[in-house]
Amino acid sequence: MKDSKKEKKKASKKLKKLKPTGLNQHNMFQFRTGLEYFQRGQLNRAINEWESIRRQSPNNINILHNLAIVYLQAKQLSGAEECIKRSLRINSKRSEEWDMLGMVYAMRAASNSGPLDTTLIEESLECFSKAFELNPKNKVLLIKIATSHFTLHNLEHAKKNIENYLKYHPNDPKALELRNVIIEESRRFGGLTINCENCGSKVEDFLAFCTNCGEALEKKTVTGERVSCLSCGSIISKNVGKCPNCGAPIDKYGMDIHEQGISKDGLISQMNELMEKEGFQHVETAKSYFNAILFLNKGKHSDAIDLMKKATELEPKHSTLHSQLGNMYFGIGKSDLGKQYCEEALKFDPQNYSALEILLSYYTQQGDTEQAEYYFQKTKALGPNYVKELIRQGHIVLGADDTFGAVSLWKKAQRLDPDNIEIELRIKAFEEDYIIEEELAKFNGDLQAAMAHYQRRLRLNPDDPFAKRMTMKISMRQMGGAPAFRYRG
Predict the structure, then answer these.
(1) Among 126, 85, 87, 89, CA closest to 106
(2) What does DSSP say about strands 202-204 and 222-229: parallel, antiparallel, or unpaired?
(3) Cα–Cα distance between 238 and 252 in angstroms, integer?
């Protein structure tokens, strides 16, 4: 409550400073009336007064700025975004506008009750960085940049920015708390490396193969080095006396975690399965592909793309590699490259369902109805026999206790035959499990990393319903000794 009052006070000071010029007497009266409404907390009335001014002076940059502030206070994000973007079209060098646009994207991401939309966080980070570039005296932007990096699990960048801020404000309690959280996450899940036994290179501990020599990286099975706090679900070292997040005594509330290892033979067996499934000609292609997916699951898009490009160079006519690379580029907002690689995938295999589906989705979002219809017809042309085959494969996969895989296949079938009631009923029966498995599959079976991710979300937004649900589900998996998730390439 105190925080919201402080924010309102700050916003009110900003609004008072920005008295617009070039307005007639009636508009100035409307401006003062709007300011009074704002100070009383009657935000919609303030918006109505200033929107009336804007209709007469659409390019008055101070009115646009004031409206953006009030729209943000009222959590009317579309209105705020429209005003800010109009301001930036008039003058793109306004640091405060870039800052507010970053807040719009961050608030939109936080308000989503489903999986975190990392694209919105990346957009907010870009805006905060632009704002700081234009006004490096505004050190508060460093906290926003650090928080964005932290949410994206770029822990080194997060730490660098928060420490830069603390040089100027060494006693800021929120910044100190954020730095401690970043350091804690770095120790537990970020930047952990192991030495390759074959060549001695340091490599990320989650990878399957050494990125230097290609040797399989054996993981040892460990029980009890880390524990799960039954009070709050945190994954912590067994050596601490109390949980650092909730204060519960570990001897009473700590449950040993069994961290399943994998032998070199097991990794090689998985790689051989992948080669057979995807039809790769070279072992190095499979290793690069395997590691690329693991990097992607950790949110390390740049490393993932580099390795997928390496795989594509080894087998330049392999359709799946091109569609995967295209999908990765779409994932970081580089739609031109994404489109290029998906189109190349279709040159080598005109029936590459993934490439067709990605391009259909892209053109639908762009509002290009002609191209969207073209790719819809292409996917539909795969025919009813393909739909039946997808349904049949779904049943086989479900029989192997892979709900996620089964529902994924049925969803593909549904996109080709949307009126099929049989498919719809199958999906509904397993929808809840599918959503959970879809999220957890991103972590490639690493329950500890998944738990850390949702705990970070809860630190940023303690009322996040999806994160609460996921931490509960992961705790249940850990306690129940659920089978490891299957690799999803």
Answers:
(1) 126
(2) unpaired
(3) 12
User: Is 266 a domain residue?
Assistant: yes
Please report whether residue 205 resides in a domain: yes
Q: CA-CA distance, 468 to 464, in Å (whole number)? A: 6
Assign 3-class secondary structure to 250-266: HHHHEEEEEECCECHHH
Question: Following DSSP, what letter does each residue of 415-468 receive, concatenated?
Answer: HHSTT-HHHHHHHHHHHHHHHHHHHHHTTTT-HHHHHHHHHHHHHH-TT-HHHH
pLDDT tens, 121-140?
889 999 999 999 999 999 99
Q: Enter the tokens of residue 203.
A: 């490599």
**Is residue 195 a contact partner of residue 202, using CB atoms and an 8 Å limit?**
yes
Is residue 255 within 8 Å of 288, Cβ to Cβ? no
Assigned domain for 326 exists? no
- pTM, 2 dp: 0.48
Q: For the segment 177-221, what is each residue's pLDDT rounded down to a tens digit?
A: 788 777 766 655 544 567 788 888 877 767 778 888 888 887 665
Q: Is 155 left (phi over 0), alpha (psi -120 to 50) or beta?
A: alpha
Question: Which domain CATH number covers 66?
Answer: 1.25.40.10
The residue assigned the tokens 């632009």 is: 130
